[in-house]
Amino acid sequence: MNKVKVKRKRPRQKLRVLVLMHEDLVPPESIEGKTDKEINVWKTEYDVCVTLKEMGHEILPVGVAHDLGVLRDAIFEFKPHITFNLLEEFHGVAVYDQHVVSYLELMKRRYTGCNPRGLMLAHDKALSKKILSFHRVPVPDFAVFEMGRRIRPSSRLRYPMLVKSLTEEGSVGIAQASVVADEEQLRERAEFVHRQLATDAIAEQFIEGRELYVGVLGNRRLETLPVWELTFDKMTEDRHFIATSKVKWDLDYQKKWGIRYDKAKEIPADIEPRLNRICKRAYRALNISGYARMDLRLTPDNELYLLEANPNPQLSYGDEFAESAESAGMSYDELLQRILNLGRSYRAQWQD
Ligand SMILES: Nc1ncnc2c1ncn2[C@@H]1O[C@H](COP(=O)(O)OP(=O)(O)O)[C@@H](O)[C@H]1O
Ligand SMILES: [Mg+2]
Which CATH number covers residue 25? Predict the structure, then answer.
């Protein structure tokens, strides 16, 4: 699964780049003696740091979890041209990543990836769908079950449904049991989300079909990357085809089921332009900047649904986003440089 980088290139301008990440994910200088499983935990952080260095940039990895003072000191001492934002939570809360980006904006600092408003809209799986339907982006029907309130599924819901956290990322809490066939199962799984993840739960109409990913890059002018697809070499009748947390993170499980992320094959000719249109429209509707990966499903009847928009998606070398960029002729170095450039050219409101 883990792919090793070999290509090197020199950039035009040498930048001081503060690489911001969770303090537990600050990577070691070298991967020597580390197992694949160990590397997998901080692979994105490692790949980005090593590659930026190889490209000739001066980097300072900074890990934060509960204390913004660390970031503030690093900014004043290191005086970065830009912060490469790899942070996905603060105080252990996934949606607090946007506040850290707000902090950077309030300090009038440049950063890569998405602005706070885009993060806020995209990370709420219900609010984003409300906005997206207004903009005619097809999304699954849904219902929200708040924590601390009685779970009363409406009779209007059509099963099967998929129950997940309203705000968590990376398929946290998504397993085979997340697909529910009736009210009782829905109730059980929503309670599980409340109890285990301490967030509200969302139940969505389960969309059967192929799972597609489309990378989008840009602030105002947008570019879509080639369509990527999740496939399983092995599958049994009784299992639902979904990207559970095991599918995404468990290397042994990935081997066992032959889980692959590749360029999508045989997408019907009229679907690809529709896909690109939907992805760009969603990106704009949610006020995303920098780069994002759109998760979609294509049903057997060739209907498209946007499952979610992921601003600041996983960026490790060999992952869907980077592979898809590479198949469009953009090497990993070029991709990171592009992301830096987009961060530097993003027009924040403090500049107006
Ligand atoms: N409504 C749905 N219909 C079918 N599959 C879904 C649905 N919602 C989620 N999934 C499956 O669960 C995975 C993770 O869901 P997603 O909403 O993308 O959450 P996360 O933010 O954790 O990635 C999806 O990639 C897909 O395989
Ligand atoms: Mg997703």
Answer: 3.40.50.20
Q: What is the pLDDT of residue 5?
A: 67
Q: Separation of 223 CA from ligand 1 center, angstroms?
A: 24
Ligand nearest to the CA of 307: 1
Ligand 1 contact, 200 CB (< 6 A): no
Is 299 found in the same domain as 172? no
Phi and psi based region of residue 227 (left: phi greater than 0; alpha: psi -120 to 50; beta: remaining): beta
Asked if the structure places residue 32 within a domain, the reply is yes
Helices (H), 240-286: 245-249, 251-257, 271-285
Ligand nearest to the CA of 232: 1
Asked whether 174 lines ligand 1 (CB < 6 A), one says yes
Residue 331 lies in a domain: no
Confidence of residue 9 (pLDDT cuts 50, 70, 90): low
Both 129 and 218 in one domain: the answer is: yes
Q: Both 146 and 242 in a single domain?
A: no
